[in-house]
Design a protein that fits this description.
Elements (H helix, E strand, L loop, with lengths): L6 H11 L5 E2 L23 E4 L3 H14 L3 E4 L16 E4 L6 E5 L4 E4 L5 H10 L2 E2 L12 H7 L6 H4 L2 H4 E7 L5 E5 L11 H5 L8 E8 L1 E2 L5 E7 L2 H14 L4 E6 H10 L10 E7 L4 H14 L2 E7 L2 H12 L1 H6 L3 E4 L2 E2 L5 H15 L2 E3 L1 E3 L4 E2 L2 E4 L4 H20 L15 H23 L13
Parallel strand pairs: 2-4, 3-4
Antiparallel strand pairs: 1-2, 5-6, 6-10, 7-11, 8-9, 8-10, 12-14, 12-15, 13-14, 13-19, 16-21, 17-20, 18-21, 19-20
Helix pairs in contact: 1-2, 8-10, 8-13, 13-14
Length: 460
C-alpha cells in the first residue's frame, strides 16, 4: 500500500507532468488569483496556481486532482461578481487566461472556435473585421473571457435583442472531473441528437466540467446603431415607456439609470447628463431603418412623459452615451464600498423595484443606486457605504437581503446574469425550491462524484 503523500510530494507529481513554470506556488502571486471582483464572499488559500495553455494540461490537472482528491477552481479573468472563482484552502486554482487563441473564424458557416481565455471584446473586434458580430456583450467585455461568460451564461447590454451566452454557443469541448474529454454540439445550427449537453454546461459555473474550447455563433454585423436618451421626472413614466418600446419594435438595447446612478456617473465621467431626472433611459436600434425606429421610440418616451429626449446616429456620440451606462459600477465604486445585486423581475415590475431601492436605502440609511437592463427586467441595485464603516456594512447587507426578497415577491430571480457562486448560494433555494436543487445536485453527483470541481459554490 502506497504511503500517504504530503502536499508538497503530491504537488511534485503534478509539476512533473506539466511544462516548466505552469505550476505556481509563490505566495506573492497566489493572492491575486484567489478571488474575483465580488468583495464579500470568502476565499481560501490555494495549494497552487496552474496556468494551462492547452487542453492536455487541463486533462493532466483533473487526472491528478481526481487521484489525490484535490479540489480545483477554474478561473478566467477573475471578473465575476459572485465569488464563483474564489479559491479553496488546499485546492488548485486552474487559470485558463493563457488559452487565448481564436482558433477559427468561419465567414461561411457563421461561427468561430475559440479557447476560453479569449477576451469577449477581442472576439467581437475580430468578428467585426470580417463583417460579423459576436452578440453577447457584458458590461465587462473589455476584460472578461469567453470561458467565464460560458460558466455564468453571461448576458449584457444587447441581450434584449440577441440573447445571452447560451444562445450564442453551438458547441463545447469539456474536460470532465476525471480528465475525460467530452465534445458537445458542433458547427451546425441544428442538432437534436440526444440531450442538449451544451446548454447543461453553459451556466454551470465550472462545477460539472471545464470548457477548453468554445464554438460560438456569429451574425452578420448590423448597421451602425441609432441611439436615444430620454429623461423622466417619474419612474413610473419611464416604466410605461420601456413597456411600449419593447412592444413596438426591436431595440437592441434598453437600459435605465436612476438619479443616484446618474449623479455618480456624471461625477466619475462627466457627460452632461441631466442630474435632476428621476431616471434616464438609453435605447438603441440597429435595424436597417434604425433612425426611423429610434424616432418612434422617442415619440413613445415623449407620450409617456419624458422631460427631455435626444436621438443621434453619430457613432461617436452613441459610444459616448453607451459608455456612460457601462461605467456605472466603476462610478459607484469610486464613492465607497459596494454590494452589487443582480436580480431580474418581470418587465411590469421594474418601476416598483427601482422605487423600492430608494425606499430600502432610506430605511437602512445607506445609498442604494439602481441601473440595469430595463428592456428585459435584469436590474443591478447597488448598495454603497463608507469604506471601513462596520455598522454601515451591516446595514448594507440587510438592505441587499431586502432587495433580493423584494425581487422574489415580484416574481423575479436572485440572479439574472452573474451566476450564483458563493454570494447567492444561500438565496437560491428560496427561488428554485428543494426539488430543483435536488435534481441539480444529482447531475453534479454523476459528473463529479468526488466533488472536486469548484466545490462550495452554488450547489453546496
Amino acid at each position: 500500500m502506497e504511503a500517504t503523500l504530503n502536499p508538497a510530494e503530491t504537488l511534485a507529481r503534478l509539476v512533473a507532468v506539466l511544462p516548466p513554470g505552469a505550476v505556481v506556488t509563490d505566495p506573492a502571486v497566489l493572492p491575486s488569483y484567489s478571488r474575483d471582483r465580488e468583495l464579500w464572499a470568502p476565499s481560501g488559500t490555494p495549494l497552487a496556481l496552474v496556468r494551462a495553455t492547452e487542453t492536455a494540461h487541463v486533462v493532466e490537472v483533473m487526472r491528478w486532482a481526481t487521484e489525490h482528491a484535490v479540489p480545483v477552481v477554474p478561473r478566467g479573468a477573475g471578473s465575476g461578481l459572485t465569488g464563483g472563482a474564489n479559491a479553496i484552502d488546499g485546492g488548485l486554482v486552474l487559470s485558463l487566461e493563457q488559452m487565448d487563441q481564436i482558433l477559427r473564424l468561419d465567414q461561411h458557416d457563421l461561427c468561430a472556435v475559440v479557447q476560453p481565455g479569449v477576451l469577449n471584446a477581442e472576439l467581437r473586434r475580430v468578428a467585426r473585421t470580417a463583417g460579423l458580430m459576436y452578440a453577447p456583450d457584458p458590461g465587462s467585455s473589455d476584460f472578461c473571457t469567453i470561458g467565464g461568460n460560458v460558466a455564468t451564461n453571461a448576458g449584457g447590454l444587447c441581450c434584449l435583442k440577441y440573447g445571452v451566452t447560451r444562445d450564442a454557443v453551438l458547441g463545447l469541448e469539456i474536460v470532465l472531473a476525471n480528465g475525460d474529454v467530452l465534445r458537445t454540439g458542433g458547427r451546425t445550427m441544428k442538432d437534436v441528437a440526444g440531450l442538449d449537453l451544451t446548454s447543461l454546461f453553459v451556466g454551470s459555473e465550472g462545477q460539472l466540467g471545464i470548457a477548453t474550447e468554445v464554438t460560438v455563433r456569429l451574425l452578420p454585423a448590423p448597421p451602425t446603431p441609432a441611439t436615444l436618451i430620454a429623461s423622466f421626472a417619474d419612474l413610473a413614466h419611464a416604466g410605461v415607456a420601456v413597456h411600449e418600446i419593447v412592444r413596438s419594435g426591436r431595440p437592441s438595447m434598453c437600459e435605465v439609470m436612476d438619479q443616484t446612478t446618474l449623479r455618480a456617473v456624471e461625477a466619475h465621467r462627466p457627460s452632461g447628463l441631466d442630474l435632476d431626472s428621476a431616471a434616464l433611459l438609453l435605447v438603441q436600434s440597429d435595424e436597417a431603418d434604425a433612425a426611423t425606429e429610434i424616432t418612434t421610440f422617442a415619440k413613445i418616451c415623449e407620450a409617456a412623459g419624458a422631460t427631455f429626449t435626444m436621438a443621434t446616429t453619430d457613432p461617436v456620440e452613441s459610444e459616448m452615451l453607451t459608455m456612460a451606462r457601462r461605467v456605472a459600477l466603476d462610478a459607484l465604486e469610486a464613492q465607497g464600498q459596494w454590494l452589487l445585486e443582480d436580480v431580474c423581475v418581470p418587465l411590469s415590475a421594474v418601476p416598483e423595484l427601482v422605487a423600492f431601492c430608494h425606499e430600502v436605502g432610506t430605511r437602512h440609511d445607506v445609498l442604494v443606486a439602481c441601473f440595469g437592463h430595463a428592456g428585459d427586467g435584469n436590474m443591478h441595485p447597488t448598495v454603497v457605504f463608507p469604506i471601513g464603516d462596520t455598522a454601515a456594512e451591516r446595514r448594507a447587507e440587510a438592505a441587499a437581503s431586502d432587495l433580493v426578497a423584494k425581487a422574489l415577491t415580484l416574481g423575479g430571480t436572485v440572479t439574472g446574469e452573474h451566476g450564483v457562486g458563493i454570494a447567492k448560494r444561500s438565496k437560491m433555494e428560496a427561488q428554485v425550491g428543494p426539488v430543483h436543487l435536488r435534481v441539480q445536485r444529482a447531475v453534479k453527483q454523476v459528473l463529479d462524484p468526488a466533488n472536486i470541481l469548484n466545490p462550495g459554490k452554488s450547489l453546496a
